[in-house]
Write a structure and sequence with these properties.
This protein is mainly alpha-helical. It contains three helices and no strands. It has a single domain, classed as Helix Hairpins.
Length: 170
């Protein structure tokens, strides 16, 4: 089973798709981070407005109090507008992450198939090479004075120094 060019091409396509999904996921995460930072700034703005109202209570400045109340009110409106966008962004990040993980699984499965096919190819190539070597060895003519394979098997049970001596059969 040779690894086809189509399988290798599929692997390349899956790698490109996975990279595209990774980029989309990172972009969605970046957008979520920006929205969360905007929400944090809005909360800080609300706290600043409350501090301004508290300071105006001590000093008696009515303009500071009005400005503080407006800052607080505006910050709450911004936070209320950001909350649904953050929820949408979180679901988009989750969807992109699921899509990315799906593409990663597809790519890894294809890599596994290709590696297994290559391993099978290597084993078959080694077997062919060994079979060809065995065929070549069997096809060689017997040379005088050299032990043939049968004689070698017959003398295999003897110690190394005794193999050259013929066996005496009673």
């Amino acid at each position: 089973m040779a690894v086809s060019r189509a399988m290798r091409r599929l692997l390349q396509v899956l790698e490109v798709q996975e990279e595209g999904c990774r980029a989309a996921m990172e972009q969605a995460r970046g957008e979520l981070k920006l929205l969360e930072q905007a929400l944090t700034r809005s909360r800080e703005r609300e706290r600043g407005g409350r501090r301004l109202v508290a300071a105006s209570a001590r000093t008696g400045e009515i303009t500071d109090r009005i400005a503080g109340e407006e800052e607080t009110h505006l910050a709450k409106r911004i936070a209320a507008a950001l909350a649904p966008r953050i929820a949408e962004s979180k679901s988009a990040v989750n969807a992109r992450q699921v899509e990315f993980l799906g593409k990663r699984i597809e790519r890894r499965q294809t890599e596994t198939l290709i590696k297994e096919a290559e391993a099978v190819e290597n084993v078959e190539a080694e077997r062919r090479a060994q079979r060809d070597l065995d065929d070549w060895f069997r096809s060689r003519p017997a040379t005088p004075g050299k032990a043939r394979g049968d004689e070698m098997l017959e003398n295999a049970h003897r110690p190394a120094g005794c193999a050259s001596h013929p066996t005496r059969k009673p």
